[in-house]
Design goal:
4-stranded parallel sheet; 3-stranded parallel sheet
Length: 191
């Protein structure tokens, strides 16, 4: 499902709710509308930059879209009070594209929820992990350079037979990856 615009109902609900800040996660239809609405209502708007869509269109050999995407990114993110980038490298890329007011907010891991004390030997044995379990979590799409991973995994397993590799997630690359990597385990979507 995708939202393509604000409806009067959403505008009325947001105006009645009177948020202190709007936080957008995607620069397209809903995010663009949110950044414009925040400016209209005088509310600060923070964006979190997640996906390098320019790299995606280049991957799909659609480079003619790059100038349009750069313009669009500048329009949306510069309309925000602040844009959060996950790394210094991403922040530098955004600044090079003319996206101002960026700060780095690195991804983190909640070490109270994800801690070795929660380790399950039964779960690890189910997937054949000796000393080392490698886990790939996310949407399974080729744009994430999964082809390189598919090449590297058999080499790694040839050198380290005690390693098990597990994919958690769904996506259009899953079926092909399963054919290429029969030694890997695919858990699908995990709630």
């Amino acid at each position: 499902r995708i939202s393509i615009a604000w409806t009067r109902n959403v505008l009325a609900q947001l105006t009645a709710f009177r948020p202190d800040v709007l936080h957008i996660h995607a620069p397209f239809w809903l995010g663009w509308a949110a950044s414009r609405l925040a400016r209209r209502l005088g509310i600060p708007c923070v964006a979190t930059y997640h996906t390098d869509f320019i790299r995606h269109v280049l991957y799909h050999r659609s480079g003619f879209l790059v100038p349009l995407l750069r313009w669009h990114n500048r329009a949306v993110y510069n309309a925000c009070t602040l844009t959060l980038a996950p790394s210094l490298t991403t922040q530098a890329s955004l600044l090079a594209q003319g996206i101002l007011n960026t700060r780095v907010l690195p991804h983190g891991v909640d070490t109270t929820a994800f801690h070795p004390r929660f380790r399950s030997e039964a779960w690890r044995q189910r997937y054949g992990a000796g000393k080392c379990l490698l886990l790939c979590v996310g949407r399974l799409v080729w744009e994430k350079n999964l082809a390189l991973l598919a090449q590297a995994l058999p080499v790694l397993l040839g050198r380290r037979p005690d390693v098990a590799f597990v994919f958690a997630g769904e996506g259009p690359a899953r079926a092909a990856l399963q054919r290429q990597l029969p030694q890997a385990h695919f858990l699908g979507y995990q709630a």
